[in-house]
């Protein structure tokens, strides 16, 4: 049996008034629409069309959370813990109330995540750039005291990226932060060559968050631009921030976030640094299948798996394992479960099949994403 799932968009300030509305073919919203959650996480379980919420069906045991994400301005720079770090943090904060402003951990689970672009352009900051490349970028900013101080720290010994981020967020580096931001604004006027796109992105972030140390943290990160159908996987500990665009996001069922800038919310610098993975390097872009039929986005975790299906009028049979969601993202999509009849899935909504299904059939002309637990995952 298939269940129809919907949810009300969450109105975070960075959300878009148009992206989700355009996807669903309706008028723009009068308030920001940032995320639509399709899952059973207690923070916002999905609504079941026949009544109630999904957690009543699943017992709150889904290992993944599927979302639509629509960003009109940058999200906070953030990182998510490993399972061991989450369990330890959850236990340490067991005496704090759920709404305590000093609480960092909302549950005891990790939160690796995958984002796939639905818009033609999706911008993000993903992972820390190799240090030599960042020093090259800083050289474009001139020899002012801010860029010089940051470059000097990156040329030091030990875990220089962790030390630099801690310094930038400490509150003691605001003079240098302001000078770096001023240098970025100056350099972007005549920017060309390798760093032009990155400088324009960071300058735009500075317009939204003037004086925020996170603007300079962003200079240490890879600026990644995804095209429609392309994705990136973000492992635990990897610093990241989405800048703009519409995407399908799937993650382990958790709401644990440690922030590192571009936010008015509390930043626990010591806890952030304790979970941060400072190994630099590019984050691989996962690209759609050349013929556009079925794309599997391979990820090295067992909590979730995600596939993109392009429908061209023929039926597409897909083997599934465990509780399955089919999210329609374009055109006309119908889903048939074993022994059932086709069920239309409106764009921006989900058809949910319980764990007793081993195969589903998709039909129509459009696009859909199929979310399941990973091949060896079990419900929590």
Describe the structure concisely for a colleague:
The protein has 380 residues and is an alpha+beta fold.
Tell me, briefly, the overall form: globular
Largest sheet: 9 strands, antiparallel
Q: Could you tell me the mean pLDDT?
A: 94
Percent strand: 25-35%
Element order, helices and strands? Answer: EHEEHEEHEEHHHHHHEEEEHEEEEEEEE
Rg measurement, Å: 21 Å
**Could you estimate the helical fraction of the residues in percent?**
10-25%
* pLDDT < 50 runs, ≥5 residues: none
Distance between the termini: 22 Å
Task: Give the topology.
Layout lengths: L1 E5 L12 H6 L10 E4 L8 E2 L5 H5 L5 E8 L6 E2 L3 H10 L20 E5 L4 E7 L2 H9 L5 H10 L5 H10 L4 H16 L6 H13 L4 H7 L1 E6 L4 E4 L5 E13 L5 E2 L9 H7 L9 E2 L7 E4 L7 E8 L3 E4 L4 E13 L6 E3 L4 E4 L5 E14 L8
Antiparallel strand pairs: 1-3, 1-18, 2-4, 4-10, 5-11, 6-9, 6-10, 7-8, 7-10, 9-12, 13-14, 14-19, 15-19, 16-17, 16-18, 16-19
